[in-house]
Amino acid sequence: MILVTGASGHLGTHLVKRLVSDEEQVRVIVNKHPFNMSGVEIVHRDITDGDFARQALDGIETVYHLAAMVDGYGVMPKDMVYKVNVLGTKNLIENFNGNRFIYMSTTSVYGYDMKENPAKPTTQYNPLSYYAKTKVEAEKIVLAHNGIVMRAPVILGPGFNKSFDDLLNRLAKGKMIVIGNGNNHIQWIHVNDLMDALILAKEKGISGNVYLVAGKDVTTQAGLYEKLASAMGAESPKKHVSLTTVKMAASFGSLKSKLTGKQPKLRMEYVNRLVSDRRFDISKAETDLGFNPKVTYEKWAQELVSSYKDQKQ
To answer: Does residue 31 lie within any of the structural domains?
Structure first.
């Protein structure tokens, strides 16, 4: 039987659907969020509860640990983020006696100023946010217990496309501006390819290893806008704005967010993911797992714009 934590999240929903379609027996742990899906055993509890973890893990051969608290605005209490991301992970893996413990991590552990580019599974940690620091701690716990760590960058596709609405609105109105020179490299991953990687980790993953997964397709910031504009039938942005100007605006928005507790209009995380030059070496996942990502930026752009237009009707 397979246990999935964080099943009510966007990624968890995709994974559970995939496992059910593969006719796997699935148990899910969800906390406060509603979760309705046939063919699975649903348990509502907190992963930091030790007694409960032992019960939830009974009869489990594979764990997909996806649950995490992402503090994108810097307003979440740090002790809460630490409790879920670090103590929750520790609690689960220390009570697990099955075969595969697969931990979903993030390329945020490298920071945006990566020690190597392309980054490798062995590239030195350089976390910037508190969230990323807790993911590093959780990774170390998982690896110390011979688990498998999966690192992925920004996820694209159904359930993850909402964050691009503002960008598409700006493109449609001809108001999108390239930040800096626009030549920085972007290498993200489509959720369909990530699902393949997670299933392959269960089948072929080597315990105690880190797998870095991303799309094969690499574009630039300017190239990303061109692909999205083409899919929309809009003009590609020609104007540029300095990175310093944009980061100052994002910093001001972040400070205001901390004071008001409201989501900032321009997030530094949003800026960083667009302007950072980050590439990833996925050869280990290709060799060990047989990972072969297929979704291109062009295919995703068509999918994204079609969904966007449907919402506007």
So the answer is: yes
User: What is this structure's pTM?
Assistant: 0.92
Asked if residue 126 is part of any domain, the answer here is yes
Tens-digit pLDDT profile for residues 194-234: 999 999 999 999 999 999 999 999 999 999 999 999 999 99
Residue 270 has what pLDDT? 81
Q: What's 47's domain CATH number? A: 3.40.50.720
Q: What is the pLDDT of residue 161?
A: 87
Position 282, amino acid: I
Mind listing the pLDDT tens digit for each residue in 25-55?
A: 999 988 766 777 778 898 877 787 777 778 8
Q: How many domains does the chain have?
A: 1
User: Is residue 221 included in any domain, yes or no?
Assistant: no
Range(s) of the domain holding residue 61? 2-155+189-216+278-294
Handedness of CA 206, 210, 214, 216 (dihedral sign): negative
* Residue 167 in domain: no
